[in-house]
Amino acid sequence: MRTVNLDEIEQERYDLALERLREIAAGRDDSLCRNRAAEQFFVQEAAFLTEMEQLRQDLAAGIYRDASLAELQDLNRKLYEDVLAENYAVCYGNPTYAAEQFGENGQVMSFLYMELRGAVVFAFENRPWDLLILMELLLTFFSSFAAACEEAADLAESDSGIPDGEEADCPRIGPDPGALRDEVYWYAYDYCQEFMHNRVLETLDPAQSFAADIILNEDLADPRYLYRFGEYITENEIRTAAFLAEMPEEEIESIARTWTEGYRIGFEVARKDLSIKDTVNIRWRLGFERVVRAAIRQFEKMGLKSVLYRSAAHVVSKHAHVRVGWYGAVPNPQFEYDHRNDSALYVDERFISHRLQALQQAYEEEKELAAVHAGPAVMDTFGEKTFMPENNSHALRLTPEQQQLAARYQTEAGQITNRYIKGEERSFTIIAYPVPDIGERFEDIFRETVRINNLDYRLYQQIQQKLIDALDQGITVHVTGRDGNETDLTIALHPLQDPAKQTIFENCVADVNIPVGEVFTSPKLSGTNGLLHVKQVFLEGLQYHDLRIRLTDGMVSDYSCANFEDASQNRQLMEENILFHHATVPIGEFAIGTNTTAYQAAHTYGIADKFPILIAEKMGPHFAMGDTCYSFQEDIAVYNPDGKEIIARDNERSRLRKTDPEQAYFGCHTDITIPYEELGAIRVIRADGSEITLLENGRFVLPGTEVLNEPLDAIKS
Fold first, then answer.
1. 691 phi/psi in degrees, rounded to 5
2. What's the mean per-residue pLDDT of the chain?
């Protein structure tokens, strides 16, 4: 991250840009008088940036330190009110509204609005360099529009341009759309190195301590601390923080310890040396800071310093509409969804190569920090209001060529990252808790989730071993649905050469993936065929209806859902968010979830559609589309608690990593679960054609696993 202080040249640029923006914001510049829509936009955005500069100064001077909660709430709403759902119809961030105002230039102007919103973050974090490049970007656009208006005026005077009587307030009076797109391209290209280096440093360096300073030094019982982050704050964050503030310290410590111990045990189980690492990355959603504070201190006792980084603000550093890092409430999910493909303005072969080089250089410059980084500890949330995206016909779209380039970037970026943060040395853990949006029984659901996250892993380990012992006898597994679920899928298993020392499935207990409750494998692709069908599923913040994926020799050969009336829109939704712009992806994982306690809780509280995939995947068989669970780590031996080596770490595509790495990895791994009530049967098929039934009509029938049915029986009673 750039230092707070600008150098002499940058400071001069900053002062000049700020002075020019103040003139525009005050309406003292009539350069755009022939395009009132543009004039209104630039006056508004110039005022916004000058206000953010003043906010930066006020925050640095401590002006808001003693502000009341009401004053902080009022400021927070003003910062984000333009994009809220009730105002979105007339927001420049809405590509439809921008198209109405600017015609062909609507998409690029909507992008500009989105990119400028990062100024809020930069004001709170005191990052004048980032503010500077936004100021100059806005002024570049202003100059382009001013030149177009001047040219239109000259044409009108010569009677060869605008006809007499035509409205001056005309969206077509503006620069050539291609020229504006060029401005965006060179903005992204020219600053790519800084963007990538800053982002890599944020993810590795504990000295980047903006969030940590708040968490460790503020009174977390005082809700005003939430407004120090600069994120949008809602009742979810306020009520979560208030609920945790009332908990005894030992309870907070216990919740944090489940998380941090899972992280430590993940290294232990994988036989990786945590002692050679110095840092851990913590990711969470605002409201849980009391747990995060406890986790920071617990990690310190393990010898790990915590790295806390915010979800990205600059377009080049973002992951479409998915937030990676810590963040607050999403003011308007549709706004972020509409801008998920803003990179369409600049993605081409040259840019992707440049971005990969920038990433490589950033990691090379920070290789010492990368070498001692242990990986992420993630706290997910669930219970937020369900978001059903609407397709905006004016939003940017990636071309097929750009989709391929984006997929290539994800693959090669993963390989670069793995060279510096070595897969054989790193691990992770992920856990999830509800937010108040889940309903009136939030506190009960939270406590039930704590119980689920702390189930006796030794009991599950024993039960799951019985499933594995049966699965290891098979050459395939046959999975079918029932009651309207049309799943009919055959999973091909890797052959065992030495069953006494080898196994196909991993016995997953509460370490990296909390809570307990699954056995999983990487299937063979050849011989894996059939239809996966789920009536309803919630994946990465998006809800899908009637989801269908057909596999042919382990590769996705067809797919559909019923979110939209238009079949092509449904395919586009899945192509972007499940296949991640690949023409096809392999099945990377087959698993059987065993956490019927979580399943019972889902039914007791009516939250089956609210659980995140982290918990939902433990509530039935699930299938991941994309890379295997062992991607980039296939050559590292992995063992179950019984000492057997898990040999199913590869498939026919991942084996290409040594000869054709671009074909080996896909940069995605999307889990899709069939709930027990839609499950017909899971049967292991032996080489001689005989069968072992593991589950029948949604119940465990394999001897030694029947105890898992007790929570299911409780639902019926």
1. -125, 150
2. 92
